[in-house]
Design a protein that fits this description.
The chain is α+β, with helices and mostly antiparallel strands.
Length: 269
Amino acid sequence: MPPTCSGTSVPTRPPSTAASWTSSPPRSGNTAWFLSTGHAPPQAELLRARARSAIPQLLSAIAALNERRSGRSDRSSDFRVLAQWFAACRNDGDAHRLARAAFALHPARHFSLNADADAELPASTSWADAPPFRIHPRLREYGEAAPRGPLPRVRDRSKERADLAQQLAEQTQQLEAARRRLATGRPVRLSDLGELDVHAFEVLLGLLGETLGEQSRPDDAVARRTGDGLLHVHLEPLGAESRAEIATPRGVFAGRDHAITVSPVQDVR
């Protein structure tokens, strides 16, 4: 003990050496934070991974809030509007037609199940009026119609495929003709379109659906490009009391009148 001025002595602190530092017990908290212990990754890596995974979730939540704030429709609001349409139906027939159009409740025609069915039977035929549909009991019992064993010979479907290809080509031509009829590049009121065939009406409904989905308020004009990038649509609502009626083979489409301008993209500068 070295002496002090008062004659007393105080203990001296031994010098810190590398040997004394390494011989000290490990600091488990700091080690587990920066270094992996056994099979567990370090806590810093876990925190970084959690932060990275939380960023996309936060961005998606902010995007959803912005969409709701901007007035764009979501699935819940679409179902509420659809419920109002069902409530406004005049009879059960209109409600059934609306349900088929909204949920695509169309009957399916399978080549392998109804091979003996009448090919001229329209798809709109009710099951009560259609001829009986025979299904092998094995399909109900085992979930498959073909018995176990060697695979049957592949049936030639070339005629059915050719018929489907021809039908698809005809529908494509009709849709292109309907697009050319509507894509004039000049503004026209919906009330002045007159009577539309089925294909032209489907094209018009698609254009209205894509354009009105971008509308924030009912009185705002909207201009956008269609999803396929072929047409440019400008839709401007007219007076709130205006009304347009479009006659189609499936009924009369009525609502607020709008001025619509449909132009090919290459014609828009």
